[in-house]
């Protein structure tokens, strides 16, 4: 939490695009996204390294253990706690309530893994999503800053789609199948399975929004005249 608090202070000192400076409501979102980007880069690369360094973990999702994976889960728990506090203390709860729900699910699940030492490999696999989040956050930053190069946005749009499939949808689908088939539906296993299924619903909802926004804009509904200052992640 302290690390991300320091990154937030650093983000305050960084220059901001004119499109952000001219809209006071966007300043918090810009800073928040920069901290999110830092977490995605660090956690995404860390998750890849943990699985590359200890590939045998994939053969024991329930009881496999590595110090690197354990520390990664602690690190990301710190980010989710920090982001939750940032949203609440800056009075952004109404516009970011979906992310408060997501963070509550992640924190509760991760704390149970940290305490018991079980299912840490599942958490590392889930944190591969941060590789996808790198490009998703770049998309949001480009959109918010009104970048003058549409080619850059277009290139990132397709990379983001590929990464979404490879590092968000695929690991999520595999873990959902594994938990439904092999994990006991009681105690911690039942709690984590319920969290995973709720996360499935959220991911599919976000994916449909992303497709409508970037690939099928004619299908968007209710977005005309919407003030993007009221939305943290600008998915629509």
TrEMBL record:
Domain TLC: 25-219
Location of this chain's protein in the cell: Membrane
Main location: membrane
GO BP, one annotated term: regulation of membrane lipid distribution
Gene Ontology CC annotation, any one: plasma membrane
Superkingdom as given in the UniProt entry: Eukaryota
Alphabetically ordered keywords of this record: Membrane, Transmembrane, Transmembrane helix
Name of the protein in question: TLCD1 protein
Origin species: Rhagologus leucostigma
Gene designation per UniProt: Tlcd1
């Amino acid at each position: 939490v302290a690390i991300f608090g320091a990154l937030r202070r650093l983000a305050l000192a960084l220059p901001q695009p004119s499109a952000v400076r001219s809209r006071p409501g966007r300043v918090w979102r810009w800073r928040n996204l920069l901290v999110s980007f830092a977490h995605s880069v660090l956690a995404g690369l860390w998750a890849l390294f943990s699985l590359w360094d200890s590939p045998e973990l994939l053969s024991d999702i329930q009881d496999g253990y590595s110090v690197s994976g354990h520390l990664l889960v602690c690190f990301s728990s710190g980010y989710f706690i920090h982001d939750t506090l940032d949203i609440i203390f800056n009075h952004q709860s109404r516009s970011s309530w979906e992310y408060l729900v997501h963070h509550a699910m992640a924190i509760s699940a991760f704390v149970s893994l940290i305490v018991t030492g079980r299912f840490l490999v599942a958490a590392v696999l889930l944190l591969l999503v941060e590789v996808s989040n790198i490009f998703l956050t770049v998309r949001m930053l480009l959109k918010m800053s009104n970048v003058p190069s549409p080619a850059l946005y277009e290139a990132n749009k397709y990379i983001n789609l590929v990464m979404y499939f490879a590092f968000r949808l695929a690991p999520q689908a595999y873990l959902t199948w594994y938990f439904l088939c092999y994990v006991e539906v009681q105690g911690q296993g039942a709690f984590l399975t319920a969290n995973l299924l709720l996360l499935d619903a959220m991911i599919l909802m976000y994916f449909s929004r992303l497709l409508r926004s970037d690939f099928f804009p004619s299908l968007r509904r209710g977005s005309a005249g919407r003030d993007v200052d009221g939305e943290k992640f600008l998915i629509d």
